[in-house]
Write a structure and sequence with these properties.
By secondary structure, the chain is an alpha+beta fold. The protein has 18 helices and 23 strands. A hairpin with a 3-residue loop joins strand 15 and strand 16.
């Protein structure tokens, strides 16, 4: 039997999925790692912890492939979280941990750049909105706040590039990941000279941009031995997790949007060319040079649901454990008892600042409309609705840029929840389809590997492997409530922005993380 492995390098865990030659899931393994928030606005990961999790996940599914029985791994391919940054000295010793997309310590420098005409000018060439998430802003922060690190840094990589460098000694970055750095010109597919001049970087400090279909062989022998895989197994670079999520749910035709809610979230559509928003609200990232994903990311997705679980429903969390139930299932059951609209309670989910649609790293969360009748159950449903309303706001901006959205394909952790699926259908007033395969990123990475190795001619082959889908239709009884509340939610998000800087600065002053 021949197998391929799709690896999903996420924000808080790495997952490896073993597929057979019919692209059916045979085995999977998932290993987590912490996100370090030692100071306000920090969100870092440890390089060694990620490498151990990656090695454990990959090694686990390789063992399940039973290579000793004559089976073969024909490729390993990657989907990766975007916007990470790691600085190395000239001897490739790390000078920082992994500074993730969720790290907003560059907010001051991003805000200054955004207010200047230069910010929009750079965005119009790179397709990455000006925000602390982007390595462009992180580099400005390092340059000004940590000049000692900046002056020593000879190389900059992201997390996937670090793994390839450690395994193969390579110094390359696929154009999909590069297109999310804010440093890469998406029209000429090269590092942008203006962005480099602004940060003070030289091109040789950055990896060589390559196709997502490029791959490495000749792994360092000690790692091949530890993983239990032949050293000449092709490791395909793959692409960013957002673009691959669209491919993984077959949302590649015009007007078909993919919504993902995992730790964070996003809504995206595919275009055959880069598309720039004159207002700078949406991103344009490469899947490959012929497919571009246009959309908006949100910081606050499943992590806000987790916050509600840990802080509003701690007792229920313990009860669920005693009963052998999943805590999230119990919580969604509780939320489902509350009518649509949470009896007039709104929640803005900006616990970690926000990217799209407001692009304000100083944004903070809030409940609005609380009265004596509201309970924790109301608050819980308002949390789920707030996350959904926020992504709906992004969709309105996206439609201004690319035209009407005709249908929605859903993926990510929220796709497990019937309540949340129905909520999206009701708020968007559109059918929401959930493909049978929820391992969309890993499956898409494998499809990229098959194209890289010449086993298929184009990416649209993935439609054969998505499987049966469940479709949720809008419920008129629910969307009447949401029609009234959505405009209030949107107006509030704008009005509250006038005070976000003040409350965020207060929290920083008092070291409130």
């Amino acid at each position: 039997m021949e197998y391929m492995i799709g690896v999903d390098l996420g924000t808080t865990s790495t997952k490896a999925v073993l597929f057979d030659d019919q692209n059916q899931v045979v085995a999977q393994a998932n290993y987590g790692y912490p996100l370090y928030r030692d100071e306000p606005d920090m969100a870092e990961e440890d390089l060694d912890e990620i490498f151990v999790a990656f090695s454990n996940a990959l090694g686990s599914v390789i063992r399940q492939a039973n290579l000793a029985d004559g089976n073969k791994i024909t490729a390993v391919s990657f989907s990766s979280a975007m916007h990470s940054l790691i600085a190395f000295d000239k001897d490739w010793k790390p000078l920082t941990r992994v500074i993730t997309w969720a790290d907003t310590r560059a907010v001051e420098f991003a805000d200054d750049l955004k207010k200047s005409g230069l910010g929009q000018e750079i965005y119009s060439k790179t397709g990455t909105p000006i925000h602390p998430m982007a390595p462009l802003s992180k580099l400005l922060w390092l340059k000004n706040a940590h000049p000692d690190i900046f002056q020593k840094a000879a190389h900059y990589l992201g997390i996937k590039e670090y793994l390839f460098h450690r395994l193969f000694g390579a110094n390359k970055m696929d154009i999909s990941i590069a297109s999310g750095t804010g440093l890469f010109n998406i029209f000429n597919l090269e590092w942008d000279s203006q962005a480099l001049e602004l940060t003070g970087l030289k091109p040789e400090q950055l990896p060589k941009p390559v196709s997502p279909y490029e791959y490495e062989t000749k792994m360092v022998a000690e790692y091949a031995a530890v993983l239990g895989i032949p050293a000449d197994t092709p490791f395909v670079y793959g692409a960013g997790d957002g673009p691959l999520s669209n491919l993984g749910v077959d949302a590649v035709k015009p007007g078909v949007a993919a919504i993902t809610v995992g730790t964070s979230g996003a809504i995206r559509v595919v275009s055959d060319k880069p598309v720039i928003d004159p207002k700078g609200r949406t991103f344009t990232y490469a899947l490959d040079k012929d497919h571009w994903v246009v959309g908006g990311p949100v910081n606050n997705g499943g992590d806000v649901f987790r916050w509600a679980r840990d802080n509003l429903f701690d007792a229920e969390k313990s009860t669920a454990a005693l009963l052998g139930r999943d805590a999230y299932d119990l919580m969604t059951e509780i939320a489902s008892r509350i009518p649509a609209g949470s009896n007039g309670l709104l929640f803005h989910p900006y616990l970690g600042g926000e990217r799209a649609p407001i692009w304000d790293a100083n944004a903070r969360g809030s409940f609005f409309g609380l009265n004596h009748s509201h309970t924790r159950a109301n608050m819980l449903r308002a949390v789920l609705e707030g996350i959904t309303f926020n992504i709906y706001m992004v969709s309105l901006a996206l439609e201004e840029v690319v035209g009407n959205l005709e249908s929605i394909q859903a993926t990510g952790g929220f796709a497990h929840s019937p309540l949340w699926r129905q909520m999206f259908a009701d708020i968007f007033e559109q059918p929401v389809t959930v493909p049978e395969s929820i391992e969309s990123g890993a499956l898409a990475a494998v499809i990229v590997a098959q194209k890289a190795l010449g086993k298929i001619d184009d990416l649209y082959e993935i439609s054969k492997y998505i499987g049966k889908s469940a479709t949720y239709q809008p419920n008129p009884e629910n969307y009447e409530a949401y029609r009234e509340l959505a405009p209030i939610f949107i107006r509030l998000s704008r009005q509250l922005q006038t005070e976000y800087d003040n409350i965020a600065n207060y929290q920083r002053k008092h070291n409130i993380k």
